[in-house]
């Protein structure tokens, strides 16, 4: 499964980067495959291990903020591994071919 999530504190002002870094640190220390971009962190693994990381990332932000916002989207597809890479590679392959892939 792949989970894309965003966790941020509420009520701490506009500069939330330090709080978000606390959450991303939890993800990086998990050892699971992950990617972080400007809007979301994506993490890949089994249900229980991924949800545990999300829960701990939220707790890391919550420890310094009284209120936390969590946005989460999941792709639950048993048996698929390396989806973080393979999904992007598939799109890049279609882009390189220069067509829409449809006739």
From TrEMBL:
| InterPro entries xrefs | MTH1187/YkoF-like, Thiamine_BP, UPF0045_domain
Question: Coiled-coil stretches, from where to where?
Answer: none
Report domain Thiamine-binding protein positions: 3-92
**Pfam families named in the record:** Thiamine_BP
Family named by the database record: Belongs to the UPF0045 family.
Under PANTHER family, the record lists: UPF0045 PROTEIN ECM15
Question: What is the official name of this protein in its record?
Answer: MTH1187 family thiamine-binding protein
Q: Taxonomic classification, please?
A: Bacteria, Bacillati, Actinomycetota, Actinomycetes, Kitasatosporales
